[in-house]
Amino acid sequence: MKKIQISPSILSADFSQLGNEIKRLESGGADLIHVDVMDGHFVPNLTIGPPVIKALRNYTKLPFDVHLMISPVHKYIKDFANAGADIITIHPEATTNLASSIKHIKELKKKVGLSLNPDTELKVINDYLDQIDLVLIMSVYPGFGGQKFMPEVLSKIKEVKEIKKKKSYKFDIEVDGGINFSNYQSVIEAGANILVSGTTIFKENKGNLKKNIEILKTI
Asked: What's the pLDDT score for residue 1?
């Protein structure tokens, strides 16, 4: 099994102190910084855009794990790449030509992630698994932080893991949505090696980021 990595979602951070929050996450042992980008169209919420990501880029050398929940996504990929994203994850439903969008991200020298909503079947991305760096499995419906984990997605995580093993693919398996201290181990056991967590990391143990990140890495 790959080493477990934690990608804290800054959606749960103090937005008036985002730069300092990212510094705290880095010193607390985070492996990546998860940036949720929402457009109020593809998902029912609005968050941040490329200028904010560019401003935050100076606060850490950790990889920016940028999850684009925007549609149409293709025309914005370059903006996020230029802003400092290291991994760009898109939803297959958000582009009219998934192969072209994957190629575009690669041409910009960024890692490619594909995200599956709880009701999106794995077969939608099957043909692209040999071309990507990450599969992000949503364990809530995207749009808001603080939602309850959907245990029914565990079977999807296992399915992705089996295909990865059978085909000897190298992509990471990331899971995002409602991950907490009571369910994270089942997510790891199912096959995930990157956990996205917001509320749990920022709120539990009186906001002790280091402690909360360490717990989520404990198998």
From this structure: 59
Give the model confidence (pLDDT) of 177-189 as tens digits. 999 999 999 999 9
Q: Is the pTM of this model over 0.90?
A: yes
Which candidate in 36, 39, 65, 172 is catalytic?
36
Provide the 3-class DSSP secondary structure of residue 61: coil
Report CA 155 to chain centroid distance, whole Å: 19
Whole-Å CA distances, 95 to 30, 88, 104, 205: 31, 14, 12, 40
Residue 36 annotated among the catalytic residues of the structure: yes
Residue 172 designated active-site = no
pLDDT, tens digit (0-9, with 9 covering 90-100), for 180-215 = 999 999 999 999 999 999 999 999 999 999 999 999
Ordered by where they begin, the domains of the chain are: 5-216 (3.20.20.70)
Question: What SS3 string covers 134-185?
Answer: EEEEECCCCCCCCCCCCHHHHHHHHHHHHHHHHHCCCCEEEEECCCCCCCHH
- What is the Cβ-side half-sphere exposure of residue 20, based on CA atoms within 13 angstroms? 4
Q: Is 194 exposed, middle or buried (0-12, 13-18, 19+ CB in 10 A)?
A: buried
Average pLDDT over residues 88-93: 98
Mean pLDDT value of segment 53-72: 97
Question: Which member of 39, 65, 172, 176 is catalytic?
Answer: 176
CA dist., res. 58 & res. 123, Å (int): 39
